Amino acid sequence: MTVKDFVLGKTVWRESKRQTAARPRLRSLGTGDWLAAVSGVILAFAALCALFPGWIAPYSPTSMEADRVLLPPGAAHYFGTDYFGRDIFSVVVYGARDSLLIGVASVLAGGLAGCIIGAAAGIAGGVIDLILMRFIEIVMTIPGILLALAIAAVLGPNLFNMIFAVAVSMVPGFARVFRSQIISVKGRAFITAARSIGMPAPRIFFRHVLPNAWSPVLVMATIGLGTSILTAAGLSFLGLGVVKEIPDWGTLLSQGRGYLTVAWWISTFPGIAITLLVLSGNILGDWLRDRLDPKREQR
Known about the structure:
Elements: H1 3-22, H2 31-51, H3 53-56, H4 88-124, H5 126-140, H6 144-155, H7 159-186, H8 189-196, H9 201-209, H10 215-237, H11 249-256, H12 265-292
Helix pairs in contact: 2-4, 2-12, 4-5, 4-7, 4-10, 5-7, 6-7, 7-10, 8-9, 10-11, 10-12, 11-12
Transmembrane segments: 34-56, 100-123, 135-153, 159-178, 217-242, 262-285
Keywords: Cell membrane, Membrane, Transmembrane, Transmembrane helix, Transport
Protein name: Dipeptide ABC transporter, permease protein DppC
């Protein structure tokens, strides 16, 4: 082997090593990734039930069969029937629409209002920050479910009132989180540099502050989806939910509590649906928090 061949071979080996190092490393899926994937499937199935319930439900939710009253779960009726002869599985599928609508709408409304308040307090500072945060702290002294219960009781049972009541109970959390993110980001060196070159304040906010402050809000919104659905189900269970021919999950729980000894399935399966949806939202939120954490160790 000549010196030229040795040098050439060494160069090729270095190039091959560099290309191998440049390839993205395939990281094996951990337990958290699998749980997040299962949670995503559950949430996607719930969304499919809410959007296209007729594709999934085998019966009409308003179909009453006198000869099929209180049938246990079986091949004909997966979740059994209730005291009207309605198929519980079909009622649960159709009831997902109101539950998810209230959950998503209340998170969007409460998150938007909370972020606006938090951004105003974090950017303005001084007296405005003091007034807004003291107001938020006063609201936070009332438990969220109790605040939503009081608002829903005053406004009456209505879909819009339910969304408004749940959204108001979520505003303080979003406001405090977003305010802390705004204060943290606006004190960094690149914000000071942007100010020093005369960049307008609105452009600094939308181009530099907001993109670096939204990730905790996204995680909180994902977790808040399950919380809002649970709160809405609690209000419906207490009789403050939407009065409709097709009951939502909380109303179905309330209707079946008097039949627990003879027909446990009426309340059990809506309760399982609520539990799975809330748990999936929390697991997905924890996974997003880990993925969006800039200090997470790169494997």
